[in-house]
Design goal:
By secondary structure, the protein is mainly α. The chain has 45 helices and two strands.
């Protein structure tokens, strides 16, 4: 029992601590070596369903956390296993295990497995048939079907497949399927707009869960306001589901302006949730401020804390139009008995409404030259400064943000705090990074902060400058100074990272960054390398040093040098032959990234085509072959001799992501598709369903260029004749591909064949396609 509890606590620690620590540690770049995943992988085979479910939860939640917390592209490239998606690439057997768990006898395991399959991101095509099977199983638990449907959306399944699935679910006789369809439509957003009439009908469904979900998700898909608003207003005035109707109207935004009177009345309803949701909806719609603002001001006295918070948030959405609410918001900010549960929302609202200016000046007018003439939330600059200096935890963040409303004078006070490096420098840093419209003022003070007495403050200042990206180009000289002379190594490598985030405007830093490549500190070397790559061709002075360093490093470091050389070495004649030779490196990551580097060179790497073709044909690892294919595609027409090898590799590569890179490369090399079509025809005859699915998707991208394949697409649709494709996904994609090929007799004939398909969704899609092509 103790061991089980320990393992559970360890899972929670991994989800809530490891990801954040890995990302936020000030002294180390973001890297994950996969051990935290490995610890739980064996549990996927455990007979104890609790362990299975716990392991799946870890993969799901940790993957989501890492996606939210991931740093810059350059930093992500410095890790080969930084996310669950990367782990799946390195361990294909793990992904296959997740697929098998969809067949578990335990519904909660199947549900978690469905979501965990999103670890492959956009390249999870292999999971599509199994997820569809779960959804189409009428005996499956409703919530498992919902998870499977949402997972299909998360892995960016082909839009046409999702649209067809959506129609099937919404029209199902099974209430769980209809619920899954409505939830899927909400996640798809505007892409599900065509389903709006059906979702309106489902607001009157016999199942309460379907009804409530339909009310809310209708607002997410951009429906016709003339149809949706009256329906939702009627539900808002009913006995059940009022809060869901309010949410749906709010999600429609300004399109729901006709619902404002009904929502104002809803602010008086007895149901607490409805009052709060109606307030938020009014803020999202942002119409008729003359009537809405007074109603929301009255709601600021509501007995419920969350309702008052919603009212404050909504008032902020009206900006200067809600100036009359400044006194009541200021009172809530200072005195609301619920404390931060309301005051933080009042504070944010006041910031959006703008300063209250004396003498009848309008909001948005320039502040007076004398700082004491201007106030914000009833206090002058000096008064806010005094509050900030008190360094009381309750006031630090509020006062720091307030100072940004006083122009350069307020920012100056924040810069002074950074220089002093006191306990409140964190609040100053947060405020300087919170207003994107004041980049010039913020960067000026952050630059001052690079001279802070507190070394930890300087580290965070360097990171804060980098977060502004290209907008921080004025900070380049100061960052160069920090990179060169700061006594603290972490300050220096964070300065290097910031220079990389700024990009080409940091070219003056190249000599120092090149010098840093030989630094004793590993992090310093890696950040400098990433920065040189982000600066681009202006970093070509680094080429000789990188070529020399490559010889002494391991696979992890060599691979990144190879990629950076491709980014910076287009004008350096020694880079191309070097990258070609690196295709034979013993390290698989180096081979892959050497191919990636050649791809960065584009058409200039045409002489590398034979070697890339060899790598594609003979390497033992699919992800390396995928990089080779991708590089050939970026070379373009100059890689036409590799087309036969690319076609053959489709049948030997098992990884769907790598196979997708091959197909993308084929149509990039020959935009006319003439040399590619015979290979695509061969792929359509493959017994491998995943190959046929990906091939049909590729044909759809080619459109009219693939018109010669119409007979084969027609054959795939003819039932029960020989050649008919038994996979419904392939047939759906065939119909959608035909629609893109234009209005020709052969296309029309093929689409008419699909009208007799045994699958109702294929029939419907074919009928719609015929209508769109004009027949």
């Amino acid at each position: 029992m103790k061991r089980r509890v320990c393992r559970n606590l360890c899972a929670l620690a991994l989800v809530g601590l490891i990801a954040r620590t890995a990302v936020r540690a000030a002294d180390h770049p973001f890297s994950m070596n996969g051990h935290s995943f490995d610890y739980f992988v064996p549990d996927l085979d455990d007979k104890n369903e609790e362990k299975q479910n716990l392991a799946l939860m870890v993969f799901r939640m940790l993957g989501e956390e890492l996606k939210r917390e991931s740093q810059s592209k350059a930093l992500k490239e410095s890790s080969t296993e930084s996310t669950v998606e990367d782990y799946c690439k390195e361990h294909p057997e793990f992904f296959q295990k997740l697929l098998s768990l969809l067949e578990s006898t335990k519904p909660h395991v199947r549900a978690q497995a469905a979501w965990a399959l999103t670890c492959r991101g956009r390249n999870g095509a292999e999971a599509v048939p199994k997820l569809l099977a779960r959804i189409n199983d009428d005996k499956e638990e409703g919530w498992v079907r919902v998870e499977a449907a949402l997972a299909l959306n998360e892995i960016k399944t082909d839009k046409e497949i999702l649209a067809a699935l959506l129609r099937r679910l919404l029209d199902s006789h099974d209430k769980h399927a209809r619920y899954a369809g409505v939830e899927l439509a909400g996640r798809m957003g505007a892409e599900a707009q065509a389903a709006a009439p059906r979702i309106v009908e489902l607001i009157h469904d016999a199942d309460p869960n379907v009804r409530l979900s339909a009310m809310e998700n209708l607002g997410r898909i951009h429906p016709d306001p003339a149809v949706a608003v009256p329906v939702l207003v009627k539900e808002l005035q009913g006995l059940n589901g009022t809060m869901f109707a309010a949410n749906g109207l709010g999600l429609m935004g300004p399109d729901a302006k006709e619902a404002v009177p009904a929502l104002i009345r809803a602010l008086q309803y007895e149901d607490d949730n409805t009052r709060g949701d109606a307030a938020r909806a009014l803020g999202q719609i942002k119409a008729n401020a003359r009537d809405v603002v007074p109603a929301l001001m009255a709601l600021m006295k509501d007995k419920r804390v969350d309702v008052r918070a919603s009212a404050a948030t909504a008032l902020g959405e009206f900006g200067p139009e809600a100036a009359a609410a400044i006194p009541i918001l200021n009172d809530a900010f200072l005195h609301d008995p619920a404390g931060m549960s309301v005051t933080q929302y009042a504070h944010e609202a006041l910031g959006k409404i703008g300063p209250a200016l004396p003498g009848g000046a309008k909001n948005g007018d320039p502040l007076k030259t004398k700082e004491e003439e201007a106030t914000w939330q009833g206090r002058s600059l000096s008064q806010w400064s005094e509050l900030f200096k008190k360094r009381e935890k309750e006031w630090d963040d509020r006062a720091a943000k307030a100072l940004t409303h006083f122009g350069e004078a307020g920012y100056q006070r924040l810069g002074d705090t950074l220089l002093e490096g006191g306990e409140d420098y964190g609040a100053a840093l947060s405020a300087l990074g919170s207003n994107e419209g004041t980049a010039e003022l913020a960067i000026k003070q952050l630059v001052r902060g690079l001279a802070a007495k507190n070394v930890v403050a300087r580290r965070f200042v360097a990171q804060g400058i980098g977060d502004w990206g290209a907008k921080a180009k004025a900070a380049v000289p100061a960052l160069i100074g920090a990179l060169k002379a700061d006594e603290d190594i972490p300050v220096r490598f964070w300065a290097a990272q910031a220079l990389g985030k700024i990009g080409p405007d940091s070219k003056d830093a190249v000599p120092l960054l090149v010098q840093a490549l030989g630094h004793a500190d590993e992090n310093m070397r890696r950040y400098a390398l990433c920065a040189l790559g982000e600066i681009g061709p202006d970093s070509k002075a680094a080429v000789p040093v990188l070529l020399e360093r490559f010889k002494a490093l391991d696979d992890f470091d060599r691979c990144h040098i190879a990629m950076v050389l491709g980014k910076i070495g287009a004008d350096s004649p020694e880079v191309l032959p070097f990258l070609i030779s690196a295709l034979n490196d013993k390290g698989h990551n180096t081979r892959a990234f050497a191919a990636g580097g050649l791809g960065e060179l584009g058409a200039k790497a045409a002489s590398a085509v034979p070697d890339l073709r060899t790598l594609l044909e003979k390497d033992s690892l699919d992800h390396v072959r995928g990089y080779a294919a991708e590089a050939l595609g970026k070379i373009g027409g100059g890689a036409s001799s590799a087309v036969p090898a690319l076609v053959e590799s489709v049948f030997t590569i098992k990884d769907t992501e790598a196979r997708g890179k091959v197909l993308t490369a084929l149509i990039a090399i020959d935009t006319s598709a003439k040399s590619v079509l015979p290979g695509l025809e061969k792929m359509l005859a493959s017994p491998n369903v995943y190959i046929r699915i990906q091939t049909m998707e590729t044909i759809g991208k080619l459109g009219k260029s693939a018109v010669s394949l119409v007979p084969m697409l027609k054959q795939a649709l003819e039932y029960p004749k020989q050649g008919h494709d038994g996979e419904v996904t392939v047939r759906l994609l065939a119909v959608q591909a035909l629609q893109k090929m234009g209005n020709t007799p052969d296309v029309i004939a093929a689409l008419k064949v699909a009208l007799d398909d045994k699958d109702s969704t294929v029939k419907r899609v074919a009928k719609e396609a015929l209508e769109k092509v004009g027949r």
